[in-house]
Amino acid sequence: MAFIIYVIGIIMGTFFSDVLPVERQEPNVGRTIFDYFIHNVLADVFISFTIFTFGIFTAALLLVNDFLVGVSIMHSLQHGNDLIYIVTALVPHGIFEIPAMIIAGSIGFKLIDAVIAKMRGESNSVFLKDIFTFFFLMIILTFIAAVVEAKITPYLMAQFS
């Protein structure tokens, strides 16, 4: 479910990118691993804690975040950046950051899964174990993404600029 919402958000952002006028911005120069990690882990934790809304705010936060990714892609294209530049800017850390965000969204939907399982008479004994496992994996992926975003992505972008 979180993956589907993630994809829908990006697609919506690309189609409705003209809704948010954005000035050309330079890449984030000088940001540290810690800066990226804190920024992304706070977003992931916030999405995870929407578990208490039975997925309503989880879906909304995923849509908004990924809508902005789609908007950023379109604005980057409109400002003359080619697809190689955009892929270089997003993919290296995105292969870790995107799964972390999808896992955060999955955590946000876990309570509704547990309630549905309970209503069906199924056991939900692994509920907390799943959440802790997902949370731990989310933190690890977010940290790896921060390292890549701070150290590898700028180097790769410099090669294509």
Key traits:
mainly alpha; 5 helices; 77% helix
Write the layout of secondary structure elements.
Blueprint: H1 2-15, H2 33-48, H3 56-78, H4 83-119, H5 127-160
Protein name: Stage II sporulation protein M
InterPro entries: SpoIIM-like
Keywords: Membrane, Transmembrane, Transmembrane helix
Cα radius of gyration in angstroms: 17 Å
Number of helices: 5
Q: Can you tell me the residue ranges where pLDDT is under 50 for at least 5 consecutive residues?
A: none
> Per the principal axes of the C-alpha atoms, what is the gross shape?
globular
Q: What is the number of domains? A: 1
How does the helix and strand content classify structurally?
mainly alpha
- What value does the average pLDDT take? 88
User: Beta fraction of the residues?
Assistant: under 5%
* Number of β-strand runs: 0
User: Could you estimate the helical fraction of the residues in percent?
Assistant: over 70%
The main sheet comes to:
none
Organism: Aeribacillus pallidus
InterPro entries: SpoIIM-like
Protein name: Stage II sporulation protein M
Keywords: Membrane, Transmembrane, Transmembrane helix
Task: Give an overview in words.
The structure is a single chain. With 161 residues, the chain is mainly alpha-helical. The chain has helices at residues 2-15, 33-48, 56-78, 83-119, 127-160. It has one domain (2-19, 34-160). Helix content is 77%, strand content 0%. Helix 2 (33-48) packs parallel to helix 4 (83-119), helix 2 (33-48) runs antiparallel to helix 5 (127-160) and helix 3 packs antiparallel against helix 4. The mean pLDDT is 88. This is Stage II sporulation protein M. InterPro entries: SpoIIM-like. It comes from Aeribacillus pallidus.
